[in-house]
Amino acid sequence: MTTPGSPVIGVLALQGDVREHLIALAAADAEARPVRRPDELAEVDGLVIPGGESTTMSKLAVLFDMMQPLRERIAGGLPVYGTCAGLIMLADKILDPRSGQETFGGIDMIVRRNAFGRQNESFEAAVEVTGVAEGPVEGVFIRAPWVESVGAQVEVLAEHDGHIVAVRQGNALATSFHPELTGDHRMHGLFVDMVRAAG
Asked: How much helix, strand and coil, in percent to the nearest 5, is found in the chain?
C-alpha cells in the first residue's frame, strides 16, 4: 500500500522480469506501473529498466517507438534504474554488441555482456553496496554483465570478484544483479529515494 504523494515509477514493460520489479517498487513505497508507450513514459517520475535480453529489448524499443523518447528523458535527467540487461541498456558503450544492438545510454561506462557466464553458471552472492545500510544485499547473477570501465563522473557502488557490478551517475543507477528476485527491497528503496530527491 503506497502512501499519498508516493512517486510514480514505471517499469519498462517491453520484455523481461517486469512483474517482480512492480512488486518490489510497491514494497518500497512507490506507485508502480508498466510503461510500454511514449505517453505512459511521459507520466512517470522515474523508470526501471528490467533484466531480460538486451538485444531483444533494443529491437522492441525501436519497434514501439520508444528508443528516442527514452534517450531524451534519460538525457534530460529522468531518474532511471537498470538491472542486468537494464545495466547494458544504460551503458554508453557495449564491448561486444550483437548486430544492430543499440542502448539508451545515460551512464559513461563500457559493459561486457554475459561476462559472468551462461545461464547454467548463474549464482547468488552477498554484495556490499555503497549507500545501502544494514549489511550486504543478496545479488542474483543470471547471465550477468559486468562494467569494464567507467568515466570520471561515475560512482562505483559495488564490486564482486574484482569486477564492477553497481554504479551511479547522477540520476542513473545500475546493477549487474537482480535485486527484485530476492525479497530484499533495499536497492529499490535506494532508487525510490533518488526519485524523491529529484522531484
From this structure: 30, 30, 40
Q: Which of 21, 84, 185, 188 is catalytic?
A: 84
Please tell me the distance from the alpha carbon of residue 142 to that of residue 76, in angstroms, as a whole number: 31
Q: Which of 21, 160, 178, 188 is catalytic?
A: 178
**Distance set, CA 55 to CA 23, 44, 59, 193 (Å):** 25, 25, 6, 30
Model pTM above 0.90: yes
Work out whether the CA dihedral 104, 36, 72, 100 comes out positive or negative: positive
pLDDT, one tens digit per residue, over 136-161 is: 999 999 999 999 999 999 999 999 99
For 61-80, the pLDDT digits (tens) are 999 999 999 999 999 999 99
